[in-house]
Amino acid sequence: MCGIVGYIGTEQAAPILLDGLEKLEYRGYDSAGLAVYDGQEIQVMKSVGRLQVLHELSHGGEKLPGTLGIGHTRWATHGSPNNENAHPHFNKDKSIVVVHNGIIENYMKLRKLLLARGYEFVSETDTEVIAHLLDYYYKGDPLEAVLKVMQRVEGSYAFGILFREHPDELYAVRKDSPLIVGKCGHGNIIASDVSAVLKYTRDVYFIQNEEVAKLTKDEIHFYNIDCEELEKESTRIEWDVNAAEKGGYAHFMFKEIHEQPKAVRDTISPRIRDGKIVIEELGMSEEELAAVRKIYIVACGSAYHVGVAGKYVIEGMARIPVEVDLASEFRYRRPILDENTLVIIISQSGETADSLAALREAKRHSGVTVLGIVNVVGSSIAREADHVMYTWAGPEIAVATTKAYSTQLVALYLLAMRFAGVRGTIGEEEMADLIRDLQKLPDQIEMVLANKERLQRFANRYAAAKSVFFIGRGIDYAISLEGSLKLKEISYIHSEAYAAGELKHGTISLIEEGTLVAAIMTQEELYKKTLSNVVEVKSRGAFVMAVTNLGHTDCEKTADYVIYIPKTNPYFTDSLAVIPLQIFAYYVALAKGCDVDKPRNLAKSVTVE
Ligand code: AGP
To answer: Which of 60, 133, 142, 549 is the most exposed place for a label (fewest CB within 10 A)?
Structure first.
């Protein structure tokens, strides 16, 4: 996820671009750049870090004169966050410049073709391929070149493009990445979302998939991929600026909850090819994978909860013993590691101090392989791990993780399946079923999200709760841990997660009339066992909210409130059952008037011990 802005008009472009990028910084903030054209030369300025650095470097845009320009705020995907990889990207003679949001899936193939034709690359990005491909196809007509590039490129993209030979034109293109066009009094503007243009206009045009917009300072023309001109009506935007930045959602957390189908799809789909699990970035041969005798999963907070679920999945599928450790414990407990050990460090930010220290501890043991499962490209954990498997969640702004958690889960499913495939612990037929179920998850998450209103009514009743318990067995225990953390961190209600069978060894004494107990019961084999525990707490006065699989209507006889999730493979139920728990926590916090995105005492990235 990155942010794009473009402007053509009578005003100086750079300040407008910087202003728009500031609204889009939530989409990415590891580097930023501007390209501004004054009719003589296209000048580019880039900087690593937050937009403020570029702001200062360009003196608020003053150093880049010109009334035509494009800007970009980056969330690295291909290549670490540095000046070379920051956008905009030029063709070889600097006559074409481009900014991009999305992922070009066939960029390696295109890069090879272009290298063979003498093109040279200065960055590791997929975007630079576009600048050179435009150069290759450009014969004087920008629109023709843009349409040819669209036909060659696979993946998702939103582009803003300038051509030196056309100082009065700005081009905008999109497929599966957002891009809108706004008409303001002094010119026209493009942006990744409306938040960046609301200061100038409330009338916007939505560019649809595989459409091109050609902007001059007075006109906007739209074309489809066959170069047919399209008529478009503008839409009046009524949102306020703050809501627009959050895509119309009241909070980043709620927006990110709704981004989970896409984030999960983006993490899964590049790793399934021709019905097989392919994790190239693992950098381990089949022999090396087969030689792994033990896996340690080390992480903090929610990422640790992913590890707890991962233990059940990896041990179940691939029959490799897995230990899950809190990074803050692992780093000091002198773990026993050898060359047949794989250490997996899970971290959204890639900067968590304890996780980084745990990684360094693991690397002190010779022969140990360290794999990072990380969301932020180029972060410390990504750089220091032997191999990195990125989760494609995009920037997560809310302190309480939701979409990063969901992508980490599917990353572990993919790993477990890859190990199981290599070790032959899962047969071909079962693997095909697993892949099918995995691919269904994004749509199923969407289905769970559709039932949120009902949950809001329920959550409003429990906003005054003093204490909540989450119980479950096996993977349901892992889900309970995350459900409990979500609730306590944003609503400040005391809550605990217990393995359902453990409750009676002490904690059940805390259950009294009206205590809310969330029972997670998605594991068919353990369903009856947990149901017995539900009966135990009910008979002590608890009010029970159950989360179970579609079809278990018998549950309604015992539990007071039942949430159903669609049927999936038992290994994957965490991905579905965690969604109502996130929504529940969100609505409880909302009802209590808590600061959902920035809960007290917490920080998004914990870079201190
Ligand atoms: C969860 O909602 C929290 N924000 C927190 O537990 C988080 O998962 C933990 O601090 C780990 O962060 P990381 O993934 O960036 O390493």
So the answer is: 60
